[in-house]
Design brief:
alpha+beta, 4 strands
């Protein structure tokens, strides 16, 4: 059953071959190259954005360094400190922590600017009834971290209610 292909069949076979060649080129070469190009363009854009952000940070750091140099280059260092008042939130937090105490007193010292860090010492004295000591022991330990950690309170014999303990664990009479 060998017969000759007609001109129309040859044309269809040639068209099929051209379609196969174009499809193979698209599938095996063009699409992977396009995907790689798009990936590289995305990486390039993200690198460009990172460079711009780094340049902005560098310029900001240089500006701040220039301001600090100008500030400290004069003969006398600046004596003023920017206003920062967080007294209200601190007092609310301390009040909530020390609410179970019978009485407490806070003493704020003056601001110390003699070093590079601004410091302000705070002294606290607390008067606690013995049953409240159990709930306040973590607070006492937090305010006195340099002292040795107290032994478990369950091993302490109960005190008469007339006696009170202060923040350092001493009994007030």
């Amino acid at each position: 059953m060998r017969r000759q292909l007609t001109t129309r069949e040859w044309m269809l076979l040639a068209l099929l071959g051209v379609i196969l060649l174009i499809s193979g080129y698209m599938l095996l070469f063009y699409m992977p190259q396009t995907a790689e190009r798009d990936r590289c363009l995305g990486e390039t854009e993200s690198c460009r954005m990172e460079i711009e952000a780094a340049q902005l940070r560098l310029e900001e750091n240089r500006r701040m360094e220039r301001e600090l140099e100008a500030l400290f280059s004069s003969e006398t260092p600046p004596l003023s400190i920017a206003d920062y008042d967080n007294l209200q939130p601190v007092m609310f937090e301390l009040n909530s922590i020390l609410a179970s105490t019978e009485d407490y007193s806070l003493s704020f010292s003056t601001v110390d600017t003699s070093q590079a860090i601004v410091r302000r010492s705070i002294s606290i004295s607390v008067s606690i009834v013995y049953p409240a000591v159990v709930s306040m022991s973590p607070v006492i330990a937090a305010f006195a971290p340099e002292q040795k950690a107290p032994s478990p309170l369950s091993s302490i014999s109960p005190l008469p209610p007339a006696r009170r303990m202060n923040a350092s664990g001493r009994i007030n009479r």
